[in-house]
User: Fold Sodium/hydrogen exchanger from Gasterosteus aculeatus aculeatus.
Amino acid sequence: SFLLCVFLISFLISNAMDNVSTERLAEESHRQDSANLLIFITLLTLTILTIWLFKHRRFRFLHETGLAMIYGVLVGVILRFGVHVPQNMSDVILGCAVNNSPATLLVNVSGRFYEYTLKGEVGRGKGHQVQDDEMLRKVTFDPEVFFNILLPPIIFHAGYSLKRRHFFRNIGSILAYAFVGTVISCFVIGLIMYGFVSFMKAVGQLGGDFFFTDCLFFGAIVSATDPVTVLAIFNELKVDVDLYALLFGESVLNDAVAIVLSSSIVAYQPAGDNSHSFEAMAMLKSFGVFLGVFSGSFALGVATGFMTFTKLRDFPLLETALFFLMSWSTFLLAEACGFTGVVAVLFCGITQAHYTFNNLSPDSQDRTKQLFELLNFLAENFIFSYMGLTLFSFQSHVFNPLFIFGAFLAVFLGRAANIYPLSFLLNLGRKNKIGSKFQHVMMFAGLRGAMTFALSIRDTATYARQMMFSTTLLIVFFTVWICGGGTTPMLFCALHPIYRTFNQKFYVKVTVFFFRVGVDSDQDSPNSAVLDGSQRRDTKHESAWPFRIWYNFDHNYLKPLLTHSGPPLTATLPTCCGPLARCLTSPQAYENEGRLFDDDSDSILNDATVSSMYADVTVSTDASGRTVNRSSGTRGLSDDCVDHDLALAEHEVAIRGTRLVLPVDDPVEPPTTVTLPSPPSPPGSEPRRQRL
Amino acid sequence: SFLLCVFLISFLISNAMDNVSTERLAEESHRQDSANLLIFITLLTLTILTIWLFKHRRFRFLHETGLAMIYGVLVGVILRFGVHVPQNMSDVILGCAVNNSPATLLVNVSGRFYEYTLKGEVGRGKGHQVQDDEMLRKVTFDPEVFFNILLPPIIFHAGYSLKRRHFFRNIGSILAYAFVGTVISCFVIGLIMYGFVSFMKAVGQLGGDFFFTDCLFFGAIVSATDPVTVLAIFNELKVDVDLYALLFGESVLNDAVAIVLSSSIVAYQPAGDNSHSFEAMAMLKSFGVFLGVFSGSFALGVATGFMTFTKLRDFPLLETALFFLMSWSTFLLAEACGFTGVVAVLFCGITQAHYTFNNLSPDSQDRTKQLFELLNFLAENFIFSYMGLTLFSFQSHVFNPLFIFGAFLAVFLGRAANIYPLSFLLNLGRKNKIGSKFQHVMMFAGLRGAMTFALSIRDTATYARQMMFSTTLLIVFFTVWICGGGTTPMLFCALHPIYRTFNQKFYVKVTVFFFRVGVDSDQDSPNSAVLDGSQRRDTKHESAWPFRIWYNFDHNYLKPLLTHSGPPLTATLPTCCGPLARCLTSPQAYENEGRLFDDDSDSILNDATVSSMYADVTVSTDASGRTVNRSSGTRGLSDDCVDHDLALAEHEVAIRGTRLVLPVDDPVEPPTTVTLPSPPSPPGSEPRRQRL
Assistant:
């Protein structure tokens, strides 16, 4: 009952009373709730119309989320200064001598029991006065709405639309940035802020307590960079796939790390009275919480992703509904187990995109993509317009100029301490160096968005948290409006040279994998900038083994087991396991054996086809998302692919004949299928088939 | 009205807990909420899997909603008798001497103010004891959830998927059944129940008050027949389009009438103390409320339907989001204005399907249909499984055998008093008589479903309402399981002869329109069973004028104004209005001028094409919804179509050449496009074009 209710409770008030006047009051309240919700709907509608106008006119200097914010701010100003609805008489103030506020309250009203649920604390700002503006209080959401309603679809969509091939190819660097980088950033920001706070305390500018754990918490929430804002901008441009994958992967995992990190900092509770001193045991416990929650959420997400094993191909509606429910239940299950639902949902999305997606009927594939795309769009714009609104509607803002200045500095330095040293270290191990200009782009692309906001608004009870919230809000506004708006033109200028150096330096290979974060030492061949063909092939052969093992295991065992699209297990398992294999293989797998790759590559992004497709086809999407120009060429083919990818790709082309699936840069767009003109393709595919 | 009272705290628990333990308690509560919601998700998942199994095995004796109910009942039994979670200590019971329960409660907890919102009354059943089972209390939803979250998508979907052509063609009969029929049914049931209740009072079987208004209220809520259950069953069979349209239209509008009727019965408040006596003024006021709310909701729905004038064809995501938001805002706007959101949403759906749908890009057309289909499916199954759950989880059931017997009898007689006399009266005016077997089918198809349940659970405060709720639950169960399950085989037996007589007797024409309910007298030509061609043509010419006027107005002015798909206004408006017309016509309309009908008929169901398509093509969908057999024939063409429909259809075929859109009986399925073999179509279309 919770999730639905959370949303409802903000707006709906039930009337289970036969008393007419009470009924009328409740009706009145319901009406006003509807009107309040209407404000947000109108905001979203306005945003959509303006986005359309901007897209139509190809005006790209302000991002849609920035727009949503502006509208939010406008409405906030109107509500704050224009409308004043006095406190409703229906709000009875009970002065109870309760020591704490329970989640549920049963009130005995002359013999009848009514249940009340805690909505939250109100107006503790100025001298513990209750906020007297009904309107402002009503447009304030329970912060848990963000975590339970709005964030899950956003994060799930991010996971579901991850370009898996490129993600896995850069997994080492991504994990390094996401884990090590976020922790570095968190501590750097925490330390700088602690310095500032100490200074402010000495100067007497601080109006309340601000402990080191608060500083660390601030560091954690501000370290979450937003995949939303960055990628929405990158999508509109033709950005290199690896730059995209690296940034996207980093910012997606970033969020997961930041949310678990912040909750483990909150869990830091030293024994005894002095609750903010350093204690090794509590520290270890926090670390344990971090590991436990993260791995638990990860395992749960992946497990439900595996479990979503659907055979309902004939009924797209049932299939889509089941898919939706399974994803949602992942979230709920994680929350019920005490893990982090958002993180579980992220990994569930990644797993489902990899396995379940292949089982879906083409109709369901479209439906699920479109559904989550829509949910993501609505939730994202809702959060950003609410963000704008809170700037004026939130009653306990604490704007401290010194703190704000410190925070901006710390955020900048923290991001720098994340990107540059890590890139340097990664470059020691990586053959495909991360160029310095690319590092600047990553540095610049570190916007703060929905996750940072949700984490900071979750708890605004203490002075420290209120100051953090106000400052975070400003950081989000700044990064979204200035950086977000500025990224586009900056990229225009910076990207062409970068793209060139990128292509020269980054011999896109599958060198790095899960267990091989670039820092390992057996790899530091110094002059790897330009290698000739044979040399490169050797290193590839030698270095690609972890990926190969994974790929073969995945392709031969996991995919056949979990989807209908792999080769039948009877073909891949040793003959002694024959009966088991027959029992585990679905009949469809046999049917699919012939058109194996065809089946696979119709999905979001097929592992085998992606790199090859990118290699000989440059995809460029128009702003309208319709026209696709492609320029074929064999130049990139040998450069950008490892051998067995090449072989697979060739095989694929041979089988598919005239049909090529072009993965478009946009994760939002479904892959565009281009039918090649039939004359050139058979001669192109024939010799290749002979080579196989 | 009430004002502030003196509040005494008679009972309070004060465990000396600091913030930490409160946080932990809240976390615990959140976890349990997640677990509870997980129960429902699991229920839905189980239902989906079983539905799939049933569909796969072509087992049709139990409908999916019946299944959802069974699972709900099972879980209800487990929760009731298997699990016992004692009352949580976090629920502090405040015994305040408040005169009534306010919607919002501000609790002053040692200097801090916490806001609590009223969730509802709990456990007033047995001796005013508070229900001590935490679990049962937690799985109970706020009844307003149904009206504000679950019903809107169901009702909107019903409106959005109405077969408009057939709906408008039968609008007279539909309105008669929906308005007159529902009112008759309501009063018949009310009177019978009043008889029973009086008898029970005399015998001493009644444990509380039960007034005549309560009886009428019961009549109103039980008169709402469900489009969901009926049509889901009808969909699986090949039912005649007009039978379908009549039943669907009746049951959809039924709901709207019943909800407004019940609220106006509640609004019946005679002046003075004796609040249940008859009073003409109060009666008139109630009638005024009925008219006002209904027409207000209608106007609002149609108005927003008109307003959803989208030009965002290039961006399907934005378009879909906008469409969704506009539909939602209709609901909120109606609720904010004090009208009935559900009714507004219904008419908004109908209007949007008629106008806005034509403006959408093909991609958005699919998206919106699929989105609302999914929402409808989830909401519907959720309601039905919750229904099953409440049978055991609801604490204040009052099962009175006599009342239940009376109710079943009254429902049966009420439906009979609705269908048979009205059909007789309508047959006086209708040329296309409603056959007696068809009347039996309509009688039998009157299932009660989501709306009846939502209306009855909305208020369960008094003894009368509790008894009503329990009885309603049984009626819903019975009709869904027995009638719902039985309709399929019954139809198999009954439909073939019906279908034949229907086809013989019903010369499907556009005789009846809005202002021409069949009862009017200028139409009673007695021997209209079989007429020869010329005679029929004459009567049609004479009788079709109200429809023609509407059609022409709609086609020439409304459609061009509201969509891009009509002929440009410059062509249809008189030349003196030239500048105005130019200003109001979108550039696309000119482009579309040539492929006018093509554009129209790609939508759900185009007015001009439907009847012709049905005439010469018999559509049969497989259970999988994939294979479409069509049998062309010119036989039905002249019988089933009026002249100008025929002309339009021919024109259409001429323009479209090789492509025909076949509207499938299933409102859930998108229209199936069949590409006719190209050789026969050009010779077929050429001579027709010459004829035009």
